[in-house]
Amino acid sequence: MRFCWFNLMPWPHLPDTFREDARSVWVDISNRTYFDPATANGLYHEYMDQLEFAESCGFDGIGVNEHHQNAYGIMPSPNIIAAGLARRTSTAAICVIGNSIALYNPPIRVAEEFAMLDCISGGRLVAGFPVGTPMDTNFTYGTVPALTRKRYAEAHDLIMKAWASEEPFAFNGEFTKLRYVNIWPRPYQQPHPPIYIPGGGSIETWDFCVEHDYNYSYLSYSGYLAGRMLMDGYWDRVAQAGKDDSPYRASFAQVICVADNDAEAEELYAEHILYFYNRCLHVWPAFSDPPGYRTVNTIKAGALSQLRRSAARQFTSLTWKDLVDGGYVIAGGPDTVRERMEDMIRTLRIGTVFGLFMMGDMPDWKVRYNTQMFAEKVMPQLRNLWPEWEHEQRWWIQPQPDRVRPDETFTQRLEDWRARR
Amino acid sequence: MTASGAFEVTTVGGISATVHAFHPETAGAGLAPIVHLHSCVGPRPDQRALGLLADATGRDVFAPELPGYGSQPGEERVDDLLDLVLHGWDLVDAVLAATGHDAPGGADGTVVLSGTDLGGMLAADMAAINPRQVSHLLLAGPLGMWVDEHPIPDVFAMLPFELPGILFADAAAGAAMLTGGVDLADADALTDFMIANSRRLGTAGKLMFPIPERGWRGGRIASGRRWRSCGAAPMRCATPPISWPRGGRRCQRPRSPSSTAPAICASPTRRRRAPRRGPPRWADSHAGPNGARRRARNVRPETSARTRTIPTPSRRRDHPEQLGPWDPDGSIRSTQAGPSCRRRCRRAARSGSRDRAPSGRRRWRRRRSRDVPGSAARAR
Questions:
Q1: What is the pLDDT of residue A256?
Q2: Closest in A150, A290, A302 to B156, CB measured
Q3: How far apart are CA A57 and CA A3, in angstroms?
Q4: What is the pTM of this model?
Q5: Which of A112-121, B25-34, B104-113, B125-134 has the lowest mean pLDDT?
Q6: How confident is the model at residue A348 (pLDDT cuts 50, 70, 90)?
Q7: What is the mean pLDDT of residues A187-211?
Q8: Which residues of A touch B156 (CB under 8 A)?
Q9: Containing H/E element for A155?
Q10: Are A146 and B202 in contact (CB under 8 A)?
Q11: Chain A residues within 8 A of B201 when measuring between CB atoms
Q12: Do A144 and B205 touch (CB under 8 A)?
C-alpha cells in the first residue's frame, strides 16, 4: 500500500453566514469580501510546511491539485507549490493531481512544466491529468462544455507525444496546431512519469484509464461506502478489457481524522470537517453540471448523477455522526481508523490512498497531530494488504538514484567526494 | 387557418432533420419561403408564432430542427458557428429541393431567413456568408452581440427550473413547453429530459458559451464591402431593434444602394429574452465610426415606446447578479407584437426583396405622430 498526503489548501476564513451570504464558493465568490492576501502569505507557508512534514512522517507521496476562482482550494497553479516542495523534500513522490489539460493553450505548457518538475525533483513527479471540474474548466476558463472532452483528448495526445518523441514533430490538432513540438526539458522518468487520472464517475474516464493503463483516482467526498458502486463499475471495465486487476490501477481520496480515541476525534475535528462540508462544498449546483459537460452515456447511467446531486444536498444537513457512519469521513481512535481503512482498501480494491488530513479550517497543530497519529499508529498496519502485488512498480515513480538532495549540506558532499577519492 | 405539417430531409452532408412546415391561408405567388431557425431551447416554443408568420406574410414557413435538437444524431459534427452556418445552408438547399421552391419561376432559390435567439445569430451569419440567397432577414431577439455593461443572463449557469422564467413571458407555459409536459419526479422521465437538455444546450453551448458572440468579425470579413457599406456590420444594425423593449417592432432596412438584402426585423412572439432589455447604447458600442450617429438616430430608444410591464418573479430579485441589469423598479419591460407588427411585416415582405420597406426613419415619424398628440403636425 502507498499513502499520499494531500492538501487541498482551503481558505479557512469563510464566515459562519457564508451559505446565506454567497451563492457559491466557486466561480463568482467575491475575492474582496472573503480573501485577504496578507493572510494568504502565512497560510501558503503553513500549508507547504504541512506537506513537507508529511514526508518526514513517512508518507510515500505528497499531493496538490488545481482549482480556480474558489475558496475550496487556493491553488490555481499547483505546479508552483510543487516546485517549492521539490526543493524542500527529497524522497516523497510529488503528486500533482493534476493539471486540467483541457484548459491550457497550448497544452505543451503542461508537458514543459511537468518535465521541469520531474527534473528538479529527480524523477519524483506523479502527473495527474484531470478533465477538470466544470467550475474550473468551463465557467472559469471558458472551455465550451460539450467540447471539453475533445479538447482534453487532444491535449493528452499532444503531451504524451511531446514526452515520447525523440525528435521535433508537427502537431496538427483541431484546437492546437504547432509546427515544431520539441520540448525542453523532457522528463527524467521514462517513458513518462506515472499518470493518474482523477475522476468523479464518468464512464468515459474509466475507459480512458483502462485503455492507456493509467491510474484511476476516484475523488469524492461522499466517502468510500458511496464510492463502492463506482469503483465496482471501474473494475468491471478493467475486467472487460482483459487487463490484470492490480490494485495499484486505482486510488481513492478519503478524509481521515485520527485521535487518541473516537470521542477525542469528534471533539478535535468535527467543527473543521463540518466547515468543509458546509462551506467549501457550497457550490451553486448549476456551476457543477452545465449541459454538455457530462456525456449522454454518463447521464444514462443516471444513478451516478443523482447520487452526486442528492449527496450535494445532503451535505448541508449532515452531522458528525452521519459523516462517520456514512463513511464520508474515517475518524476515531487508531483502531477504529485502521479497521475502517482496511475495509475501504479491500472493498474498493485500491493500492494508493490519498489521505485528506487537513480539512476546512483545521489549525496547523491539529493537522500535524492527525498526520502523525496516522503515520505512527495506522499506516504501518496497513502496509501489507496486497502481498501478492508487493513488487508492483507500475503507476509509481522511478526516482533518479543520484539526484541532488537539496537538504544535503556542502560539507556532506565534500566528505562524499573525499571518501570516493 | 394555417396548414401545418412536418417532413424529413437529409442534407448533402448526410445529416437528417425534421422540418416543420406552415402554409399560409392565402399564398403569394412566387414569394421566397421563410426558413425559420429555432431558439436555443428548441423548436417547440416557436410553433404558434410561425403559423401567424405564414399568414401574415403569405409565405410558406419551414422550420428545420438543428443538430442536437431532433431525434436524429448529428450534433457531434457541429463544433463551431461556421460548421452550423454551412449546415444551415445545406438545410436550406434540402428544404427548397424537397418543397419545389427551387423550381424555375419561383423565387430563384432565395429565402427569407428568420431566427429566434440562437437561430437569429445563425441566420445573421448565414446571410453574411451568402447574402445573395437571402431576400430578407427576420431576427427575433437574436443573440450574437455582447455589451460589457449589459451582460445577458448566463443560461448555462442556471438550473432547469429557472429557464422558463427568463425565456418566456408566461413561465408556467414555458416550463410545460420545455419539459414537454412530462413529470420530472419520475426517474426515467427525468433521465430522458436530462439527456435531451444536455444535447440541446450542449450543442447551443458550442455557439453561446461562455459569451454568445462568435461571428461578427468573421461575418464582416466574409460579407465584404457590400454589407459593410450599410454599417459596421449589417447584422448588427439589423439585430438590436428587435432585442429591445422600445424598438422591438421597428422594421429596418439598410440604406446602402448596393445592398441586395434588406433586413426586416420583427418581433412576432411574446417571448422575452435578456437582450430585449439590453443596452440603450448599442449603437455607440457597436456601430462603425460613420454609422454610429445614423443608427443612433434611427433607433431612438426613448421614443415610440409602447411597453408592457411584467411583474418580476421573486427569485429574480434573489439573484439579480445572474440576470443582468433590471429596471430600477424591479420589473422588466417587454414588447408585445400586435396586429400592427404583423401588418408591417406583411407589407414589407410582400413587397418583394427589391421593394422598399418603410425606412426606419419614416416609420418612426409616423408612429410618433400617432403616439404623441400634436406631434403629427410637427412631423409634417
A1: 97
A2: A290
A3: 11
A4: 0.80
A5: B104-113
A6: very high
A7: 92
A8: 138-139, 145, 286, 290-291
A9: helix A148-164
A10: yes
A11: 290-292
A12: yes
Cα first-last separation, chain A: 40
pLDDT averaged over every residue in chain A: 93
Give the integer Cα–Cα distance in Å for B56 and B59: 8
Q: How many CB atoms lie within 10 A of CB A297?
A: 12
Contacts of B198 in chain A (CB under 8 A): 291-292, 294, 296, 299
Specify the residue for cell string 556532506.
A412
Q: Residues of B numbered 212-251 whose beta carbons fall under 8 angstroms of chain A's beta carbons: which are they?
A: none
Reading the block at residue A346, the C-alpha cell is 479491500
Report CA-CA distances (Å) from A157 to A108, A118, A125, A172: 10, 19, 19, 11
A251-255, B138-142, B282-286: lowest mean pLDDT where?
A: B282-286
Would the CB atoms of B191 and A300 count as touching at under 8 Å? Answer: yes
Contact state of B157 with A145 under an 8 Å Cβ cutoff: no
Nearest to B273 by CA among B143, B161, B123: B143
Q: Mutate which of A299, A305, A307, A308 to test chain B, going by most B C-beta atoms within 10 A? A: A299
pLDDT score of A302: 58
Closest-CA residue of A relative to B156 is: A290
Which one of B158, B162, B194, B201 makes the best mutation probe of the A interface by having the most chain A beta carbons within 10 Å?
B194
Residue of B nearest to A293 (CA): B202
Q: What is the ipTM of this complex?
A: 0.86
The answer, for B185 touching chain A at a CB cutoff of 8 Å, is no
Q: Which parts of B168-306 fold into alpha helices (H)?
A: 171-179, 187-208, 216-228, 234-238, 240-243, 282-286, 292-299
Q: Tell me the mean pLDDT in the region B247-255.
A: 31
Average pLDDT estimate for A154-171? 97
* B205 contacts chain A (CB < 8 A): yes
Q: Compute the nearest-CA separation of B321 from chain A (Å).
A: 10
Q: Residues of A with CB below 8 A from B67's CB?
A: none
- Work out whether the CA dihedral B313, B315, B320, B321 comes out positive or negative: negative
Cβ atoms of A199 and A218 closer than 8 Å = yes
Separation of alpha carbons A179 and B132, rounded Å: 38
CA-nearest of A274, A370, A268 to A50 is A370
The Cα-based distances of A366 to A12, A55, A273 in angstroms read 14, 17, 12
CB contact at 8 A, B118 and B39: yes
Residue pair B324/B220 in contact (Cβ under 8 Å)? The answer is: no
Residues in chain A: 421
Q: Which three cell numbers stand for residue B186?
A: 419520475
Residues of A with a Cβ under 8 Å from any B Cβ are 23, 27-28, 138-139, 142, 144-147, 150, 174, 284-287, 290-294, 296, 299-300, 302, 305-306
Q: Is A185 in a helix, a strand, or coil?
A: coil
Q: Is B198 on the interface with A (CB under 8 A)?
A: yes
Sequence-ordered alpha helix ranges (H) in A249-363: 262-275, 296-300, 303-315, 320-325, 334-348
Q: How many angstroms separate the CA atoms of B59 and B307, rounded?
A: 29
Residue A17 CB-density burial (10 A; 0-12 exposed, 13-18 middle, 19+ buried): exposed
Dist CA B5 CA A129 (whole Å): 50
Instruction: Provide the pLDDT for residue A175.
Output: 95
